[in-house]
């Protein structure tokens, strides 16, 4: 499930602009060994120059640091460690040559070249899907996504059979108030047909500035009636947690990302499930890309005994620090628990599922091996609105095992057949049994119902307390 969607990551201070020398008025043409008197390229824009300087300043970071998404709300201050590499000088020379020698001056795009250079540099680190460069727009969207609020109309959508379908309108949102219903199929946004567009593309189309209008056209019901909504975007508060009772005894709690406040939301959902009579919990971390590491520590503390190790962090010099479960107002206790994971579970999802697997003898982890990120990210602003998410620590399981490129393996491997998608609970809505077309969820229900899964008798793993 997606939303047309934790405090924003900290911003570094102390960034400095370093003066750059301009190319000679009549540069040397190495091709002809004569002075180059051709028409000069346009000067590099100030924005690009500042960004380029920042690239040089941060080049030292890539030598200094070892290395979706586990994010530390850390800031960087002062000058970063400097590298002895001649790389920045070589890059500047190449940059100048492109601007003074390349034949098709119209093809030169400073922003595109800069972004490509940073992307290529980060790719050499091998921290696939984690350490990365964010443009100013991407950085803003990332911060919004983790802040727990955004500007939009308040619909949660998902892709089903190549169509964008409303999972649920958010309470007190423009969409909810206007009458958008679960199951409505989105056809167009502001007159633009969304056929063939991804969920992320559609989300970006629906979002916009607060107070601006957007027109959404949906297809509704078996008669494919078209309904049109003229909505005004406004700020939406979004919980990353949803839950429901699946039957009289079992509740499912789904966490979509470790955004700001997610720990409190999981705690509230668990308390509500217990109050509703749940004697077994399914905690769904499938397709959860991660988020803030402090939220992971809090959520891990809900599901493992106080004082046990949730994860271990390792910095560049190899020193390690265990991070222990803290006292929480609501915990799972000795209640039976099943955790659902898949290849889309990454970073903080892996921290929590790994902690539960290591420390909770009443838990069973089922599904598929997780993504295998294994780095803790810090967010560094580059001064022009763009930023680097840079792996500054490794994290290890409570046993000290590194999961980078390996992932967390489930106790029981259960895949989803082709055509099935993970069930998405809607808080306060009891699902129809026919909606539970989710093999992994069916296994979880079977385990909590006494071990009968289809015709097989499930034997839980044996773990020490």
In terms of topology, how is this protein built?
Blueprint: E1 2-3, E2 28-29, E3 34-35, H1 46-64, E4 70-72, H2 87-101, H3 110-123, E5 132-134, H4 136-147, E6 149-152, E7 155-160, E8 163-169, H5 174-178, E9 185-189, E10 192-193, H6 199-206, E11 213-220, E12 225-232, E13 234-237, E14 241-245, E15 250-255, H7 262-275, E16 280-284, E17 291-292, H8 293-303, E18 309-314, E19 320-324, E20 337-341, H9 348-359, E21 363-367, E22 375-381, E23 387-396, E24 412-413, H10 439-448, E25 452-453, E26 456-457
Parallel strand pairs: 4-17, 4-22, 15-16, 16-20, 20-21, 21-24
Antiparallel strand pairs: 1-7, 2-3, 5-23, 6-13, 7-8, 9-10, 9-11, 11-12, 14-15, 18-19, 18-23, 22-23, 25-26
Helix pairs in contact: 1-3, 7-8, 8-9
How would you sum up this structure, described in words?
There is one protein chain. With 465 residues, the chain is an alpha+beta fold. It folds into two domains: 1-6 and 45-131 and 240-465, 2-enoyl-CoA Hydratase, Chain A, domain 1; 149-237, Pdz3 Domain, CATH 2.30.42. It has helices spanning 46-64, 87-101, 110-123, 136-147, 174-178, 199-206, 262-275, 293-303, 348-359, 439-448; strands spanning 2-3, 28-29, 34-35, 70-72, 132-134, 149-152, 155-160, 163-169, 185-189, 192-193, 213-220, 225-232, 234-237, 241-245, 250-255, 280-284, 291-292, 309-314, 320-324, 337-341, 363-367, 375-381, 387-396, 412-413, 452-453, 456-457. The strands form seven sheets. Strands 4, 5, 17, 18, 19, 22 and 23 form a seven-stranded mixed sheet that branches. Strands 14-15-16-20-21-24 form a six-stranded mixed sheet, with helices on both faces. A four-stranded antiparallel sheet has the order 10-9-11-12. Strand 22 and strand 23 (387-396) form a beta hairpin. The longest helix is centred in the N-terminal third of the chain and has 19 residues, at 46-64. It starts with a strand and ends in an 8-residue tail after the last strand.
């Amino acid at each position: 499930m997606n939303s047309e969607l934790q405090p924003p990551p900290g911003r570094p201070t102390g960034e400095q602009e370093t003066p750059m020398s301009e190319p000679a008025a009549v540069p040397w043409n190495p091709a002809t060994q004569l002075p180059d008197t051709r028409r000069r390229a346009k000067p590099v824009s100030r924005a690009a120059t500042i960004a380029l300087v920042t690239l040089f300043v941060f080049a030292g970071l890539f030598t200094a640091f070892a290395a979706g998404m586990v994010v530390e709300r850390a800031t960087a201050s002062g000058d970063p460690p400097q590298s002895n590499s001649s790389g920045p000088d070589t890059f500047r020379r190449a940059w100048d040559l492109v601007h003074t020698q390349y034949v098709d001056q119209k093809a030169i795009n400073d922003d595109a070249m800069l972004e490509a250079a940073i992307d290529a540099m980060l790719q050499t680190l091998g921290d696939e899907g984690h350490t990365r460069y964010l443009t100013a727009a991407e950085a803003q969207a990332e911060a919004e996504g983790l802040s727990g609020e955004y500007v939009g109309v308040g619909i949660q959508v998902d892709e089903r059979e190549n169509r964008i379908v409303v999972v649920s309108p958010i309470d007190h949102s423009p969409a909810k108030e206007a009458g958008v219903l679960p199951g409505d199929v989105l056809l167009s946004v502001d007159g633009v047909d969304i056929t063939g567009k991804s969920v992320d593309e559609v989300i970006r189309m629906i979002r916009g500035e607060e107070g601006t209008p957007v027109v959404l056209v949906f297809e509704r019901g078996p008669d494919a009636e078209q309904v049109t909504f003229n909505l005004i975007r406004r700020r939406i508060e979004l919980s990353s947690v949803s839950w429901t009772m699946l039957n009289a005894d079992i509740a499912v709690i789904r966490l979509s990302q470790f955004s700001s406040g997610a720990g409190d939301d999981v705690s509230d959902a668990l308390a509500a499930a217990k109050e509703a009579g749940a004697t077994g919990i399914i905690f769904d971390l499938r397709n959860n890309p991660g988020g803030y590491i402090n939220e992971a520590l809090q959520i891990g503390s809900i599901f493992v005994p106080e004082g046990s190790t949730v994860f271990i962090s390792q910095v560049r010099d190899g020193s390690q620090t265990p991070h222990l479960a803290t006292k929480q107002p609501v915990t799972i206790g000795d209640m039976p628990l099943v955790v659902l994971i898949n290849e889309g579970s990454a970073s903080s999802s892996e921290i929590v599922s790994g902690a539960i697997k290591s420390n909770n003898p009443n838990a069973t982890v089922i599904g598929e091996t997780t993504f295998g990120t294994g780095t803790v990210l810090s967010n560094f602003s580059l001064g022009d609105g763009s930023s680097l998410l840079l792996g500054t620590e490794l994290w290890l399981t409570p046993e000290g095992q590194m999961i980078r490129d390996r992932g967390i393996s489930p106790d029981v491997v259960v895949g989803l057949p082709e055509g099935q998608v993970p069930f998405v609970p809607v808080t306060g809505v009891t699902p129809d049994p026919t909606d539970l077309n989710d093999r992994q969820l069916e296994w979880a229900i079977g385990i909590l119902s006494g071990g009968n899964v289809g015709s097989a008798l499930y034997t839980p793993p044996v773990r020490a307390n």
